[in-house]
Write a structure and sequence with these properties.
Layout lengths: L1 E3 L2 E3 L9 H14 L7 E4 L1 E2 L2 E2 H11 L5 E5 L7 H6 L4 E4 L4 H18 L1
Amino acid sequence: MHKNHNKTEPVLTISEDKYRQIFDNANEAFENQPDKFDLVLTDQIMPNMTGELLARQILKIRPDIPIILCTGFSEFMDKEKLRSSGINDVLLKPALKSKLAQTIRTAINDSQKKS
């Protein structure tokens, strides 16, 4: 749990061996109840799909959801192009927990300002 101004925010951590099962369940859950999610945090390199493609699919369902893309390959990423496609931010790996928390908080705050 991450504490922020006396609010507790749950954080889901996924291990590699559980990735496929959780992804399938999360993808189905998002499609069935997109308003239950506050933010999407995805890796760029995943089995069967890039984070960029996942973001495009999610934004078709819910255009207002904040999306953060994580990558270890910054030299191949055009941040401005990604932002113009609806991705809120690009987080370079490895990332410090404090940077991750700050990026998530900023994306959620920016999303709430637009609402």
